[in-house]
Request: fold
Amino acid sequence: MKYILILTLATYALLSSASMDRPLGRSIDDKNLKWGPCPELFPKGCEIGVLHGNPARKNTDVFFRVPSQYEIPPHTHTSAEHMALLSGELAVKYKGEEEMLLKEGSYAYGPAKRAHRAKCVSEESCVLFISFDEPIDSKSYSGKL
Reply:
């Protein structure tokens, strides 16, 4: 499963017109941005757009988009996540922490290997900018949060 995600995201990165050695500016409604499905761990409706980097390598930036009322199941990543919510409202729960409500313009940090879940609670879709330090992966988590 991990390798399917990396291969899928790497394909989108290769299709992107972005070069790693050139300045880049993108918006969530950029017509040239290639959106693809999230890994099978996530229910249908979740999409990822690779902005910069190669998901199989360190330091990759993505847009992560889910529809209104979408529930992101509990999971972990090998990498830490640096996130900014660009649209919508997202309720996020990390293992051992109180649930937090991110609103448009909010920043959040997710420690590496920390289990978490989320739900887009707004009437509009939620779009996150996420920067990963390490190669991108997602692993299902079934323990208590």
